[in-house]
Amino acid sequence: QVQLQESGPGLVKPSQTLSLTCTVSGDSITTTNRYWSWIRQPPGKGLEWIGYIDYIGATYYSPSLKSRTSISRDTSKNHIALQLSSVTPEDTAVYYCARGVNRGLGVGFDSWGQGTQVTVSS
Question: Which terminus of the chain is more solvent-facing, meaning fewer CB atoms within 10 Å of its CB: N or C?
Fold first, then answer.
């Protein structure tokens, strides 16, 4: 059974870079047809997809966040990482990592981490 666990600072100052890690167990991040994603939910709002890194290491980002986002991976540790630069209080959210799988109708997210709260404040 796949498990995902997010980790990182819970408080980030404005203009700094938010850095989170998602450790994956029960599956390899290099398994074919895997799209390891970051998704967030600001308080009182819906889910927002940030981007993903796929099984060959290619990355895809939300156009609205692309200029500030970097997703990378460490295959030796089986984890993925998110960096979001120049953060503002509007980046305050619960951040999730999720496993995406394409079952023929597009990529669907079938496993999620528990989420980690990140607050941007001075």
Answer: N
